[in-house]
Amino acid sequence: MAKIFPPEIVKALQNLLSILEAIENLSAFVTTPVLLPYALEKLKGDRQYQMSLRVKPNKQYRLIFECLNTDIKDDYKNMTHIMIIEVSKHYSK
Predict the structure, then answer these.
(1) What does the domain layout of the chain look like in residue ranges?
(2) Which of 26, 33, 42, 49 has the most CB atoms in a 10 Å sphere around its CB?
(3) Mean pLDDT, consecutive 10-residue segments, the chain of 93 residues?
């Protein structure tokens, strides 16, 4: 099912995708101060093999993806290929 996102979220997603294309690996999201607000995180439960990045400016949305070339662990330097699973509104518990 296709979703329609607000224009500011579409622009923010385009920006995030540009960043993902430009960086060498995911370690940039934990070592580069300007990228820290994207809040790279490993997911839990049924999504334990997936990760997410928050979509700025309001961080209400997140981009969920899987790493294709390594297992999810703390070795972000080896995370160089991802597959985007979804973009969804994130609801905090």
Answers:
(1) 7-89
(2) 26
(3) 80 93 91 92 91 87 89 77 89 64
Distance from the first to the final alpha carbon of the chain: 25
Q: Name the residue among 53, 23, 18 with its Cα closest to residue 39.
A: 53
One of 3.30.2310, 3.30.1460, 3.30.450, 3.40.50 is the CATH number of 7-89, namely 3.30.2310
Burial of 53 (0-12, 13-18, 19+ CB in 10 A): buried
User: Where does residue 76 fall: left (phi above 0), alpha (psi -120 to 50 degrees), or beta otherwise?
Assistant: alpha
